[in-house]
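ok here's ABC transporter permease:
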Amino acid sequence: MFSRDRWSEIMEALTANWFRTVLTAFGVLWGIFILVILLAAGKGLENGVMKDFGGMATNSMFMWTQVASKPYKGLPKGRRYNFEIEDVAAIKEQVPALRFISPRNQLGGFGGANNVVRGLNTGAFNVYGDYPEIIQQEPMDITSGRFINYSDIQDKRKVAIIGEGVKAALYDIGEDPVGTYIKINGVNFMVIGTYKKKSQGGDAEEGQKQIYVPFTAFSQAFNMGNQVGWMAITAKDGFPITNLKNEIIDVIKARHTIHPEDDRAVGHFDLFEEYSKVNGLFVALKAVAYFVGVLVLLSGIIGISNIMLIVVKERTNEIGVRRALGATPWSIRGQILMESVFLTIVSGMAGIILATGVIWLVNFQLDQMDTSEMMFANPSVNLGVVMIALTILIISGLLAGLIPAQHAIKVKPVDALRTE
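and the structure:
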């Protein structure tokens, strides 16, 4: 099958008319090029959107209190209530599939007044009272010092971790903030670490202007008692938070005497649900890319099939002689199929190489640009996509040569020898 004579015949057949062969091959080259480029562009868009999640634990939800919209057990409509630290233990006990529950309190906010002072420098920053688990839910790089630990929680230590944006606003260039003190709403906290958020989206700069302190110290310093402003809740792997959120909300409703059908009393944001929607969008985009790419590739395959039919017609005499000399139908069929597959693979690989070059150039240009505000990053295709493309090429080559091959073996030796 792989004899030198066989390959010589293949090359002779394909080079007999160079211009026709190149035009035919271009259809397949263009089809596979479009397929790879579409998949790479889809991946680039996916990377650009996903980087805004900043490595955040996506199987999470955020929950806060709202106004009760229905009267219940003698309590009026429009009643306000607060989460309590005891709610955390109750949720953990009744919903065991949860991995982290981080109660949070917050000072400041967008457009707030200056609430942090260090020497002569002041600034308005978000200040969070948190537990150590929050770093697992909102990943950040600790650039110096350390993060909150449970000793800080138990001892109610007035310590703080500040973002690089806070450091730039309150400290001189090159000054080490670790071990110094900042004053938050008049209360002194010692800085024990600095961080940089991993998020690279549009809120990246704002994400570096936050301060984290132990939840217990926050509650004591700012007279919060056992109140909790809101919670960040993450489920264990294999347990979508979307399937658990009703159980969590029901625990809160039962503990705070809220009507079971009051859907407005507990506010929540399901990050996993939003993440799943985004993932579904990119699955659809990938399917569209394959659909369009395969259709374009199919047009090239049809072109190869047509050319192979012409080649078979031109070689009718040759086929007749070979049949008369004892060539089997499978030998004739194999020759035509090999020519078709060879032409398809060569032109397809050229398309893959061309697409790879274009992707490299795009990535090179992106590396020279500030892409922090762009929803497009690192367009690429993995080895699996290349293998799929090769599989499509081989199957396509076989399909392109099948009809001409069948036509070739139907030619009777006597009729073929009579053909001029």
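+1. Residues 35 and 291 are 9 Å apart (CA to CA).
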